[in-house]
Structure formats: structure tokens, C-alpha cells
UniProtKB/TrEMBL annotation:
This is L-glutamate gamma-semialdehyde dehydrogenase. Keywords: NAD, Oxidoreductase. It comes from the Bacteria. InterPro entries: Ald_DH/histidinol_DH, Ald_DH_C, Ald_DH_CS_CYS, Ald_DH_N, Aldehyde_DH_dom, Bifunct_PutA, FAD-linked_oxidoreductase-like, PRODH_PutA_dom_I/II. It comes from Jannaschia pohangensis. Residues 522-956 form the Aldehyde dehydrogenase domain. One of its GO terms (biological process) is L-proline catabolic process to L-glutamate.
Amino acid sequence: MPFAAPYAPADEAIFPTLIQFQTVGKDAMDMAARLVKGIRAAKTRIGGLEDFLRDYDLSTREGLALMAMAEALLRVPDEATQDKLIADKIGAGDWDGHDPSDAWLVSAATWGLGLSNRLLRPNDTVPGIMGNLTRRIGGPAVRTGVRQAMRFMGHQFVLGETIKAALKRAQENEAKGSLHSYDMLGEGAKTTADAARYAKSYSDAIAAIGKAAGKRPLPMRPGISVKLSALHPRYEPRNHEAVLAELTPVLRNLMSEAKAHDLNFTVDAEEQDRLELSIAVIEAACAGDILERWNGFGLAIQAYGKRALPVIDWAADLSRRTGQTLMVRLVKGAYWDTEVKHAQVEGHADYPVFTRKAVTDLNYLACAERMLALRPHLYPQFATHNALSIAQIIHMAGDAGGYEFQRLHGMGEALYAAVTRETDRPCRIYAPVGGHRDLLAYLVRRLLENGASTSFVAQAGDDKIPVEQVLEMPANLAEAPRHANIPLPTALFQPRPNSNGLTFGDADELNGLAKAMRAAPVMDEVKPLTAAQAADAMARAAKAAPAWRDTPVATRSAALNRAADLLEAHRPALMATLAREAGKTIDDGIAEVREAVDFLRYYATEAQALCQSRTMPGPTGERNEWRARGRGVFVTVAPWNFPLAIFLGQTAAALSVGNAVVAKPAPQTPRIAAQAVALLHEAGVPKDALILAPGGVEVGQALIADPNLGGVAFTGSTATARSINRALAEREGAIVPLIAETGGVNAMIVDATALPEQVTRDVILSAFRSAGQRCSACRIVYLQEDVADGMLKMIEGAAATLRLGDPMDPATDVGPIIDADALERLKAHVANHKPRYEGEVPDGLFMPPTIIELDRDHKLTTEVFGPVLHVKRWKARDLDKVLDEIAATGFGLTFGLHSRVDATIAHVTARVGAGNVYVNRNQIGAIVGSQPFGGHGLSGTGPKAGGPLYLTRFVEEVVVSTDTTAAGGNASLIAMEQR
Ligand code: NAD
């Protein structure tokens, strides 16, 4: 049975099947109450994770600041940055709010800040302690203290730094009858070398666990969890074929090794976007007879996912087909926040996860019931710390056995001690194994998951909350299965709808789109205008302008909104032209159509506000009415690199406030412009109010010299903007506005507190996506020298995983360069330097992702418009010099910063001259209405595209002042009654 389930069904459709689980039987409720009381009776200080959660209320800034400090501190090699980070995080706290007898502070002092309980004196005030500590920064005490604290925490929450150490420690537990499942901590692989390293570490761990496993039969044998995203650097749905070909054999090897030792082998759950891919990989890996005589293979399923039940059914089917039991771990899911954000960012129709925690709890029970019913095909492993879920499962399961519970190492000890008094079912310990560096990321995750004051774990541990309240379910679930404060992704920008994205994780949708793109007809050639045709276009537009200006703004906006809908309806055809004409890959194409749609709707909305006439204040007997209206004929001049979004954005802005437009696309990309203009006409924009003017420099020059010109909106290179500016200055007649958005030499600064995996992801995207042919692309990254080597290694390794080729192939990351001239220019630039990295290229107009390291004195002063990333190293004390160097280029378009130090972020963002500043993320892909886009200095005149001031440059203002007393006196004043 192939797995097939809708990616993100509506909550309302699923909820009726879940509601029955809201009713809890009396026996189960009583048992749950006994379990909570058990937890409370066994409470210890500075013990398990629950104590820690209780003591560090994550809802406080201080709690988060301390975690963030510890997380980053461990990877910072230099003392100057360590001290900066510590001062920053301690400075962030509102220490006045804490009582010194506060358990929170005691804990904070014990581990996070390197103080010991003994150092606290009875009369200490909290600000006093913190002040003292701040003075000690710079001394080794705090740094050493944090490291010691890490060791303490490591011992608490990680079974061992190595599998050997973990196994040794597990022996004590096993003597008491506990089972283990080992989890190797770490981020997903970013490079092929990382993936190979993870595979080896899994393989070594399997051998070691197998050797220590003893003689008990499955399911009472130990296990290991394997993350597929650790085994492939590009574990992404659009990479389906490569992942299947490259990852499946690696997974099968590990499975065979685990099978040889008869271990439990669990494929861990990944993001919802990767669920179909994971299932495809598991299907492929289970082909043949690998599962024969092995009842230990399985997977983890996330109950917050709306597809959890179909996954269970698919797993049961796999079990039937292979005749083996699968061990299936049911979790609630640890990345809920990421899932919600992802769906919003990508413009999905709905969320693939439930938005209310209580609904996930119900789905957990629905899944549990299904899994229990599917015994012995499945051996359910219930990984939960929720006493109510546990009690309900015990009652659902009856006495037949055939399942187990799981708890996290360092958590749930008291709870499961109480569970053992209720049932003989075993509890397996999920045991993280890894070094301190990976611990914190894991711990922060667990804290976020369980530390929210609303979470079960936090409430169960809090004596002040009555037991009945801990076990209570929200009463309004049936009426409100969705979270009231989480709008659908489509409703993010109300009242205008968000543009539709593509669900890459839905293979049918992705493949359907790719197929429709290939099937889309190739557009006919679009011929450039002659000089006479250009003049004629301007004349016709001038004639049409007054009527369009006097059309009610609501009518103009309705036409633009209709055009947005038409664009979405014609998406495959538009994307096909974008791919053929501009080399846009599928993800670029989706983003470009979305941006164009957003522009249309945004300006349609903004124009309605701007074009309302307003009565201005003034003396009595006078009416002052202010109005904004179109200026006449705007010429819009667009670049080839956003031939749909920028072309339409400028044009829609001008049209929305009542200008007629003559729109000139770049000579490389006239077809997509012709398609866009045709859709605007279809949507109701009169033919002469919007005229397409294909052609190159000559056509542009003719339009700008034309006497009918009322304004110019230009996007392109700085040199062209200058030349247009000069041409405008030489014209006779009225001086018209010029809006110019131009290029940039965009920099990113990375300090030693940044997470290398995040830096790598964001540098690769910013520098190489769209073959670097974005005005916003990162051209130069400044790496703090203390971490530069490691970062560069990872960045180069990740660059090597990029695939260049046919833009219509979903697996392609980087498409071609726009034309042979541009490619020549890029090659000439690279030839003048000695690149430290150059990727491989297929035949055709391709430029390899290239990395050039510049020495201290070498400055990058011009825009290199392609996939060429420059790198420079900087010393921790020289941050301001780096900022000076960036400012000296004169450009100011985009800028990126990766740092965990808030003071650095504040300092840099205040000083840097770029129009768009991005912190701890990539620096491309500005969202209309959310991140208005445009630069300063050599990068443009402003106002920002997609921002609140943009339309104001496209209007002229009129004020009509009428003396209402002129005929017969001030009637309204006289009539006004005095009280
Ligand atoms: P370009 O300057 O060569 O051409 C832009 C447009 O101007 C084209 O339509 C071209 O035909 C026209 N043009 C050229 N000379 C002209 C003249 N004398 N009079 C009138 N029109 C003339 O730029 P391009 O190569 O198409 O685009 C890439 C450049 O655009 C890069 O520098 C990039 O940074 C910049 N860009 C900036 C932004 C932004 O928002 N700041 C966005 C995209 C691209």
C-alpha cells in the first residue's frame, strides 16, 4: 500500500474523529491523579530535568538569556568574545525581580554562572550578586564556571559523551531492569563528509551496543535511533531521486548491522515537509528480505502531525507485507514552532500540524488506540511524560501486553516510578549520547518543549496547581480546534490574502507543477519596438492617462487584485517562461510569482488609502481638500533578474494611483513581461493605460527623452541609473521624479558566537541561490578569524552539494547565467584572483559556485553579479574597522549579521548603512509589505518597494481650497448653536 494522505487537511475535518478521546473514564482519571501525586511526592532539588524546568521559568528573559549564553559560549574560542557574550546575557536580566532565596537563582548560580551555593551570603540581593558577577567578567572564574556547569548538566541529561561511556552508565540501569534506546546528538549533516562521519558513528554505536546487549530477546533488547537528515547533506523533498539513490544503501547497511545484533532500530521523525521522503526511503530500504527474522525495525511517528494516523496504517501494512513486527515510537513532536513558521513562510494552504496542544494530546490517544489495535504487527512504544496520556493508554491497552513506554534520560523518573506501581509494562530510557557542544541545542529544545508554563511537565511539578487542574482538558476544543492566535498562512497579511506557495513536501504537488511547466507552450518571440513605435506608445499612453486617473481607485485596485488571481491561476506557464528565459529554478520561480502577486495586492490596498481625498484642518468658512492622483505617464524600466516581480511591481505601483504606464522589460526577458501585461489587460487595465515596450538601451532612451514622460521607475545597475539621471537632467520641460533601485556590494559579518550550521545554510542561500544573480545576494562574508577555518570548511562542503543544471528539474539548485557576456565578465573576475573553492559545472552557460578569499588590504568595491562569494577574516577587536570598510564602498543595499550577542547586534544594526539588514538569517528574499526593499547611497534613491512610502513617489498632490463664505456669508458658523 503506497502511503497517500493529504498534506495538511483542515483541523475541522479531523476533529470529529478525535473528540471521543476527550472523555476520560473515572479509573483512568484516578490513575492519572495517583501518578501526578507520585511525581510530587518524589520531588528532589537539583535533580532531574523537571527541577531544572521548575527553577528556570523559560518565560523569563533571564532563563532564556542564560540558556542562550551557555549554548553559544561553548563554541566561542576567544576570550574577548566569551566575555562580551557573558556580559551581554547577564546584562539582559531583570535581576531586581528575583528574590535571593529564590530557588531559580540558586540553580542559576549553581550551574549557569559558575557561582557555587557557598558563595551566596544570606543578605545578598540579587542585583548585588549580578553586579558582583559582572565585575568578575574578564576573569577566568565565570568562563571556567560555565564549563564546569556544562559538565554537570551533561552528566544529568546526556547518558555519556561517547557511546562507550553511555553503555557503561547504562549497565547500572539495566541491572535494575531498564531498557535503553540510544540517540546520537547532533545537527543534520551539511556536507557529504559530515554525513559519512555520522554514518560511521552510527555504525560504531551499533557494534558497541550490540556487543553489550546481552542475551534477552526482542523487544527487550536495546535500540538506536537514526536521523536520516544526518545521513544525507541534502535530505530535502525536491532531492527525492538523489536521496533515494544515495541514502538508501547507507540506511540498509546500518539496518543490516543492527539486525545482526537483533537490536531495535528506529528511524527518527523529521520535519513534516520530509515525511513523504522518509517513507519513500524506508520503503526502499525495507525492500527484499532485510526485515526477515527481525522484529526490531521501526520508526518514530509524531502525533502533532495531521497525517500521523495514515502513517500508522502504512507502517502496519509494511509489517503485514514483510511478516515482521515493527517497533513504532509515538511522540508528540518537538518542532512545533518550526512547523508553524515554515507553513507561514512558504505560504501553505494550511498547517500540517495541529495548532492547539490539547488537540495533539487527543490525536496522541487516537494514534495510541490505533497502534494498540494493530498489535502484534506493531509493537507500540509510547514516548510521553504526560500522566493522563499514560493512564488512558494503560486502560485502553488491557492486559495483553505487547507495548512499552519511553522516557527521556534525566526526565520522568518519578513519574515512571509511579507508573511501575500501576502496570508491569516496561519503560525504555531514551538516552542521548554526545559531547557538550551538542547537548545545549538538545536541552534548549527540550526546555522549550516542556518548559512552557502551560506544559504538562511544568504543571505536574508545580505544587501550587491542584491535581484536577493539571489533568483538565480545555472545554472548548470542539468549537475551536484551532489556536485562536495563529491565523492560517493565507491570512497573515489581512485584509489582503497572502500569495500561495508550493508545498515541496507534497510530491504530487511538486511533480504536478514540474510537469505542467514542461507542458507549457513556448512563448513566441517578442520583437523590440522601433523608435517610432516607442514614441507612439508614449503618445497613446498620454491620451489614455486622464481617463485612467479619473477611474475610481476601487476600480483600479479591483483590476490589480484580479490580475493577482490570474497570475496564480497561470503559475505553471509563467514559471516555465521564467525558467526558459531567465534560468529560474522552481524555488526561484515560485518565489518570483509570489512576489509579483504580493506586489499587485499590496499596491491595490495601499492605493485605496492614499487616493482617498482628505479634508484638512483650517479656519471656519473655508474647506481644504487634499487629493493625491496620478502624474501622467510613468515609464518603468526593469532588469532581467526579476523579470516578473520587479517588472510588475513597478508597473502595478504606478497604475494603482492612476498613472498610465509604458513598461520596458530588459532585452533578455521580454516574453515573461508580455505574459504579465496580457494578464493585466485581461484583468481590466485598459490597453493604452498599460503598454509593453520591449527593447534595449535605445528604446529605454527614447522613452525617457519623450515629452510625454511624467516619471521613471527604474531597477537595474548603478551605471544605468546614472545615465538615466543625466538624460532626465538634460530634458526640457518639467523635472520628473526618478525612482532608482540599483546594485550593491552586500556584506555579511559573522562572529564566533554564531552557529556554524546556520551560517553555512544562510551563506549558501544568500551567495549562490539564483546563481548569485540577485541584487540582494551576499558578495562578501567577513568571518571572525578565530572560527573562520571551521566555518569555511563547512561552507565549502555545503557548496559542493549544490546541483547545477536544468532549472525545470526540481532537484536543481543553481540555474544558468543570463547570457554569454555576463558569464565572460564573471570568469574574467575570477581569473584575476586565486579562488579557494570552485564547484563543478555542466556544459552550458553555467558558472560554478566560487569562493575567493581576499587578504586584509584587498577591498571589494564593485558588484560581481553571479555565484562568486568573497571572504575576509577579521579580528575580534576590529569590528568597527569592518563596518568602516563596508561603508566605504558607498553601496547600502542588504547586509547580514550572525551573532548571539545582543549588544553587537544593536551596535552593528545602528551603524550599518544598508537599507535591508538581516540578523541571524539569510539576506535575500524580502517579503512585500513585511520587509520593504531598497537601498541607500549607490544602491538606490528609495522609497522602498513594497513599503508604505513607495506609492507617494508616483503621485502629484492637489489641494482645493474653497471659501465657503464667498456667497452670502458663513452660514454654518451662524447656524452653530451656542451652549
Ligand atoms: P541594467 O542596468 O543593465 O538594465 C536594467 C534595465 O535598464 C534594462 O531594462 C535595460 O534595457 C535598461 N537600460 C539600460 N540602459 C538604459 C538607458 N540608458 N536608458 C534607459 N534604460 C536603459 O541591469 P540588469 O543587468 O538588467 O540588472 C542587474 C542589475 O540590477 C544589478 O546591478 C542588480 O543589482 C540590479 N538590481 C537591483 C535591484 C534593487 O531592487 N535594488 C533589483 C534587481 C536588480
